[in-house]
Write a structure and sequence with these properties.
The protein is α/β, with parallel strands linked by helices and 149 residues long. Helix content is 47%, strand content 21%. β1 and β2 form a beta hairpin.
Length: 149
């Protein structure tokens, strides 16, 4: 049994692949090339599906989009990114054709700043030293689910 944890993003989606004991196998960021959001969403989902098949993943977890209070949260909502992320989570969850669960951001990292999350992930998993942005969050979700974050 293998698992995938996914941090959805409008411009890049992070993923981490885990074995049945929550040992990290691989991670990365998938970016779409299309300028059109819907086409980019499908492109990213297709690449995730290929990864799921290649790695024999049987279960997935994806971060549930949430609007945070404050200036940045308002900017994200105003740009329509929250709607796009919600659309992506639903589409990807069905498209991958494996059991998927959403993980609430407030539960796995609370309101920790990005730099603190990155330091914690890299301290717990030195093999993820070169992980960036959405991949860090995908790894953090897996660490949370395994009880280590």
């Amino acid at each position: 049994m293998r698992r995938i944890t996914i941090d959805p993003g409008v411009n890049g989606t992070g993923y981490a692949i885990w074995d049945k004991r929550w040992k990290l196998i691989s991670y990365g960021i998938i970016r779409g090339k299309s300028k059109n959001w819907e086409k980019r969403m499908v492109e990213i989902s297709k690449r995730l599906k290929t990864l799921v098949g290649k790695c024999r993943v049987t279960t997935g977890y994806i971060e549930k989009p949430k609007k945070f209070q404050g200036v940045f949260g308002g900017m994200v909502a105003d740009r329509g990114d929250l709607v796009k992320l919600s659309m992506f989570v639903g589409f990807c969850s069905g498209f991958l054709m494996i059991p998927m669960e959403t993980v609430e951001v407030i539960k796995w990292k609370g309101q920790l700043p990005k730099d603190i999350v990155e330091k914690r992930v890299k301290k717990l998993l030195p093999e993820a030293e070169d992980a960036k942005s959405h991949a860090i969050d995908a790894i953090g979700i897996g660490l949370y689910l395994s009880g280590r974050f």
